[in-house]
Amino acid sequence: MSALDDLVAVMARLRGPGGCPWDAEQTHASLVPYAIEEAHELAEAVEAREAGLGDDAHLREELGDVLLQVVFHADIARAEGRFDVDDVARTLIEKLRRRHPHVFDDLAVDGVADVVANWDAIKRAEKPERSSALDGIPVTLPALARAEKTMSRARRAGLALPQALADAGPADGGPADGGPADEQALGAALLALVQSASEQGLDAERALRTATRALEHELRAQESAQRESTQP
């Protein structure tokens, strides 16, 4: 038996008769906060290792905690006769093969840009219900992460970001000479903005969420206008 098989058996035992009452009463919904927390702890472990402040043992532990969330959810579904962890793995394998035709099929690509473009095209075909390139970005992402994701999706979809963002200067909290030179300088600039906001009684997280929502609204309107202009 592999370690993964053993993990699945341990989880079933924990949630089965004579197992752990806490594990047995959990639901998909009740586990959501733990999945979010574990994902953040994994990110912290990765960043700590890259900075020379962590090690593989810590990273391995945090990866295990994320894996536990997958196995936990799969066992809840298994007990209800819906699907099991093998179904989860099969679905993932099918998706990886489908989205990498340059590896598992005979599609030719010319560098990473082609790979990303093909991935986006395949994903759009898989999810025809999504009418916008911005659909599917979780609204619960931290404000900065959601802002970055929104702008990344916009660029990949060929959407033009509002000129106000491009023209932002020091008075607007923007770069004075092309932007910070590195991540350390960027971090310092962001901290300075947060400090300034705090001193003025402003909520930086809420402000960024609000600005990102407004940006998303503008980008969606741009998409809609492009679609209308191409219709016969």
Automatic annotation (TrEMBL):
A Pfam family per the record: MazG
Domain NTP pyrophosphohydrolase MazG-like: 26-104
Disordered as annotated region, ranges: 213-232
Residue ranges, compositional bias (Polar residues): 223-232
PANTHER family: NUCLEOSIDE TRIPHOSPHATE PYROPHOSPHOHYDROLASE
Protein's name in the database: NTP pyrophosphohydrolase MazG-like domain-containing protein
Species this protein is from: Agrococcus citreus
Classification of source organism: Bacteria, Bacillati, Actinomycetota, Actinomycetes, Micrococcales
